[in-house]
User: Fold this.
Amino acid sequence: MQEIFKLIVDVAKTDSNVLITGESGTGKELVAKAIHAKSSRCYGPFIVINCGALTESLLESELFGHEKGAFTGAQYARKGHFEMADSGTLFLDEIGEISIKMQVDLLRVLEEKKISRVGGTELIDVDVRIIAATNLDLKEAVKQRNFRQDLFFRLNVISIHLPPLRQRKEDIPLLANHFLRKYAQKINKKIDSISSSAMDLMLKYDWPGNVRELE
Assistant:
């Protein structure tokens, strides 16, 4: 993890796209936020979108925006996340879940640095750094033709892999005590420590939900 922390600082000095991999709950969004906070874009917006939580049509509208009348219910023009993230960072979580069509659209934006809103024809310049994250093996997805190789190369300029909590159990006491202080303060309750028996149980457990489950 110390090596990852150093890598975050080095990566932040560049403007390259970053792909963060690791199991669910390992802290991929926190790494993305740290890269943004230490970068020259830190005064710009940090916009998050969960690609796996939206249908293809909704994701398209969320990313690129839409013009008035573009579809039923579009009563006014709306900026998408690319426009909102201009001069900042766009974090694309669960990037491995997007459809082939969306992969093509995203590739075009990464290459041309321009977007067009759904239902519109105007090309809009966007200056955005992309940080993507996935808990899937994208190299395997490329082999299975479920993910475009050219998009993978565009996203994977710099790669950061977060190990699961079960592979770094020495971090459990540090994390557990951090969360203890955080929530004791939140509920205004004085709790000084975790018992040795409770900590032993934590250290023996494999934490399939990783740091999120521990918290």
Observations:
- The beta strands are 18-21, 46-50, 89-93, 114-115, 124-125, 129-134, 158-161.
- The longest strand covers residues 129-134.
